[in-house]
Write a sequence for this structure.
């Protein structure tokens, strides 16, 4: 499932690099091409505007399909709820908007996540944070807020997850030394020190606030993995900017949680 480059950001021996200094070629991605054919991603695009239209979302969809993912794209909470209850998707992208319409939406997400479904939560500037913020508040006591105009590039630095303008080492940053932070950005607000240890910052925006954070449940947990991105404008305004496509696809491959699924398959086969 993973390439030989998995987990390496600082790749110095690539044949070529793009204009942003990231190595070119899919061998430097986290996931192998075509490896994820048994995995399905539901994209719930609850926010849209004249730029973030069907043509724009097709770029991330096409990139995911290269790795083998099946992708279902919906635009309403009700469609999302229906799809999640079918239990045919392992990962759900939730692109937040300014209001939650269906009162059962968050409980459906919690149920999906608690039973092993992975979530890629996307938020942006307030008020386009509702779905991500409400879920995180219920799950971890964390909210999301803010409207920082970033529009800068973050750089890789070992163990610099919490330094302004940097990201540290993690599988989702495989093959990335420079990463566009997004145009308008919010950030998580932690209510307790414990929530910081559970929901871990991987990248810090140029204003010094967390902009990408993950939850990786213990192997014994039934929960899925979780990633929060605080600047979803990168999905459509700057898809070709520094590292965006690779990071989004890497994160989706990581969310699949193949390590845990492989372990569970092995256990089941030993029982038989």
């Amino acid at each position: 499932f993973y390439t030989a480059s998995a987990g390496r950001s600082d790749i110095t021996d690539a044949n070529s690099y793009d204009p942003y200094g990231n190595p070119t070629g899919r061998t430097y991605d986290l996931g192998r091409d075509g490896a994820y054919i048994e995995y399905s991603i539901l994209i719930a695009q609850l926010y849209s505007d004249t730029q973030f239209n069907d043509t724009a979302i097709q770029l991330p969809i096409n990139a995911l399909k290269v790795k083998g993912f099946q992708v279902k794209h919906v635009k309403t909470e009700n469609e999302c709820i229906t799809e999640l209850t079918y239990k045919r998707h392992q990962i759900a992208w939730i692109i937040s908007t300014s209001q939650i319409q269906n009162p059962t939406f968050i409980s459906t997400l919690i149920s999906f996540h608690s039973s092993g479904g992975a979530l890629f939560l996307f938020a942006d500037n307030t008020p386009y944070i509702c779905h991500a913020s409400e879920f995180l508040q219920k799950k971890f006591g964390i909210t999301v807020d803010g409207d920082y105009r970033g529009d800068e590039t973050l750089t890789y630095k070992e163990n610099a997850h919490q330094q302004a303008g940097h990201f540290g080492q993690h599988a989702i940053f495989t093959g990335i030394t420079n990463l566009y932070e997004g145009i308008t950005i919010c950030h998580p607000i932690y209510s307790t020190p414990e929530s910081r240890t559970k929901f871990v910052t991987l990248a810090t925006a140029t204003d010094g606030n967390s902009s990408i954070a993950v939850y990786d449940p213990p192997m014994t947990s039934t929960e899925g993995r979780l990633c929060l991105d605080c600047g979803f404008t990168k999905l459509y305004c700057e898809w070709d900017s520094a590292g965006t496509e690779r990071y989004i696809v890497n994160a989706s491959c990581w969310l699949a949680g193949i390590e845990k699924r492989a372990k569970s398959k092995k256990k089941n086969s030993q029982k038989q």
The helical segments are 54-66, 77-85, 105-114, 130-140, 193-198, 244-255, 258-271. The domain at 26-271 is CATH 3.40.50.880 (Rossmann fold). The longest helix spans residues 258-271. The mean pLDDT is 95.
